[in-house]
Every structure is written in C-alpha cells, then in structure tokens.
Amino acid sequence: MNGLPTQTDQDDEPGSASPIRQMSLWPPPRSTRHSNRRARGMLVVAAAVLGGLVVVGGGVAWALFPEGEADADEAGAGGEGGIPAAYAGNWSGEMSQHDEAGEPVVDWGASLKLDEGTGRGSADWFTLGCRGSVTLVEDTGDSLVFEYAETYDPENHCIDETILTLSPGAGGGTLEAEWVATSRSGTVMTSVGTLK
C-alpha cells in the first residue's frame, strides 16, 4: 500500500530475518560428553568407598586381634610356642576315675595326639567310645593345661567338657594326666593315669 513490505512479504523472501527458522517436534540429540564424566566420577567414588572399607576392616581386625593373638590357634592360646616337643606325639594309657569322696567310678582307656608347636590335639576315650578335641589354654612351665570339648558321643554317657592337665611322668617318656570334670548331676569327677 505505501510501498513498505508487510510481515507476510518478509516471510516469503528468502534470507529474510525471521525469528523462527525451521522448527522440529523432536528434541536435539544429547551430548555424551557430560555422561562420560559422570561415569568416571562414579568409579572414583566407588573406589574411594571400597578403599575406606578395606582400611576400616583392617583396623577392626587389628583391634580384635592385637599382635601375636592372631596366631593363637597355631601357637596355643596359653602357650607362647604351642605344645613343646616333650609333650608332642601319640600317648595312651588307662585312667582311673573317682568321685569327690574318692570312691572309684570307672577305669577307662585313653589315647591322646598332640602336635608340636600347635595349640590343639585330639583325644579318644576308646573304652567309653567318646572322642574330642583338646585346646592348650595354659603352660605353667611344669605342666600343660588343656580344655577338652567332646565331638563324638553316640551313647551320650561322656562328659562334654573337661580340663586336662599333663605333666612329665616319673619314668622317661611318660606323661601324668589328670582329667577333671563335673558330671551332669553336678558331681566333680577326677580321672588320673599315666600315658606312654
């Protein structure tokens, strides 16, 4: 009308300065540049957490097992070097059991196996048909003290836990043994004998 181009005329002209270019209904593709950084960051955090757990676990183990106690199973809980050579080996003999009044209860055969330098062994009450393990709890210098824990008693007539004390015998190559236990009825039973 007055010679000036209208808005409609501008949209039709190529290269016109329209604020709207081609429009798409789909979002532009995402860049992977930031997601790779995120994955690396997650790996670093996971490694740091795992490292922290290892350090904390080591600290807990150190607190629970101070130096020297971690090997108590091998060296013997109460004996620094475990079972000495003089006590190590296979031993057997007859034990005589009596009650608190000194009255005889039963005689029974026993065998014992002790490994040098360890804190453990095995015991077999072959007359009674019972077996168990012994764990060294004290080395007094004159004797070794073990705790016995029963592992086999099919007829349920043996005492589950006893204290075994071994000392060198009067004759060479023998051990004097004393088992002390409390029966199910509460009676203290003592068995003594010589093992060869």
UniProtKB/TrEMBL annotation:
Record's keyword terms, sorted: Membrane, Transmembrane, Transmembrane helix
Region span, Disordered: 1-35
Top-level taxon of the source organism: Bacteria
Chain segments annotated as transmembrane: 43-65
Name of the molecule in the record: Uncharacterized protein
Native source species: Actinorugispora endophytica
